[in-house]
Every structure is written in C-alpha cells, then in structure tokens.
Amino acid sequence: MYLLITVAGYIDAWPTIALVMLTAVIGVALLKRQGLATLTRGVTRMNRGEVPAQEMAEGILLAVAGALLLTPGFVTDVVGFLLLFPPSRQALVVLLLKRVEIHTASSPGVHPSQQPSPESNPVTIEGEIIAAGTGKITDNGDVRALDVKVGDKIIFGQYAGSTVKIDGEELLILSESEIFGVLEG
C-alpha cells in the first residue's frame, strides 16, 4: 500500500487509479489466455490416460495470480504477472511438485488383490473391476463401449494408473489401455 500511495504522490491519484485498473484489465486478459492453454494441456494429458498434475498445480497458481492482479497494489501486480508468465509459473510448479508425493499404481475402479513387495518386484498385478465408466468417446462423438465390466478379474502393470482414496479405501484408477488382459469375466 505504501508504494501505491507513494506513486499517487508523484503522479496524482487519478493516473494511479487508472494504472491499477489497467494492470487488472491486462491481467484478466492474460489470465484467460493462460488458463485456457493450461486447461487444454490438462485435457490432452487426461485423454492420453495421464494424470495432469502439472496442469492442476498451474491452475491453482493461475487462480492465485488472478486474485493478486485484482488486488490493488503494484507489488501484488508484479507477483501476479510473474505467475502468469509460463516459465516462472512452471518453475514454481516443479518446485512444488517435488515436495508432493504423487501415488501411481494400477487402474480406475480396480481393487488390487495383491500389493507389490520390494522383494518380489512383480511386473503385473491381478485385480478386480469394481466400477467402470460408460466407454470412450471417439473423435466423431460416438461412445465405444468398454471391453471390461464390473466383476472382471484383470491383470495390469505395476506402475499403471493412479491411486485414489474413497471412503478410506485405496482404489486404483486406470484407463482401459493400461489393462493387459481379462483373466475371468
């Protein structure tokens, strides 16, 4: 606030208010552009069956940038614009993600029947489908039915999918392409 008052003392109140408003308008325009680009990258990663952790973290930082840019003040504007600048935002995300452990494991809606142990170092894991989606939406908008259904016993790779915790139970989420085969249906 001190800097804002000091600048107003040099250039008068109305130009200072106009400058604050201008940074907010420019910031919102840049925020929209960066937000859409980040969303597009995240959707692309999800369509490939990957977890968009980088994009989710960037989305949070973009929300912080938006709040800072709408807060009157030159220091908040500088920090907000730094978060809008992709290289600085992505560098900060890398630092943040190094501090967060991302659990990956098996497949969406799959409950593993065994957990890999460091001694055995298995290549595949058996599991049972406990939930399944309706299918994959193709490029032309049709829905291709899944080849697996609830109750199927399947095998999948040790590092496939992502772990989620629902009602205290750890489940594995994966795309159908990560399933090696159906043992019994």
Automatic annotation (TrEMBL):
<dbReference type="GO" id="GO:0005524">
    <property type="term" value="F:ATP binding"/>
</dbReference>
<dbReference type="GO" id="GO:0044183">
    <property type="term" value="F:protein folding chaperone"/>
</dbReference>
<dbReference type="InterPro" id="IPR037124">
    <property type="entry name" value="Chaperonin_GroES_sf"/>
</dbReference>
<dbReference type="InterPro" id="IPR011032">
    <property type="entry name" value="GroES-like_sf"/>
</dbReference>
<keyword id="KW-1133">Transmembrane helix</keyword>
<keyword id="KW-0472">Membrane</keyword>
<keyword id="KW-0812">Transmembrane</keyword>
<feature type="transmembrane region" description="Helical">
    <location>
        <begin position="13"/>
        <end position="31"/>
    </location>
</feature>
<dbReference type="GO" id="GO:0016020">
    <property type="term" value="C:membrane"/>
</dbReference>
<dbReference type="Pfam" id="PF00166">
    <property type="entry name" value="Cpn10"/>
</dbReference>
<feature type="transmembrane region" description="Helical">
    <location>
        <begin position="60"/>
        <end position="85"/>
    </location>
</feature>
<keyword id="KW-0143">Chaperone</keyword>
<dbReference type="Pfam" id="PF04186">
    <property type="entry name" value="FxsA"/>
</dbReference>
<comment type="similarity">
    <text>Belongs to the GroES chaperonin family.</text>
</comment>
<dbReference type="InterPro" id="IPR020818">
    <property type="entry name" value="Chaperonin_GroES"/>
</dbReference>
<dbReference type="InterPro" id="IPR007313">
    <property type="entry name" value="FxsA"/>
</dbReference>
<protein>
    <recommendedName>
        <fullName>20 kDa chaperonin, chloroplastic</fullName>
    </recommendedName>
</protein>
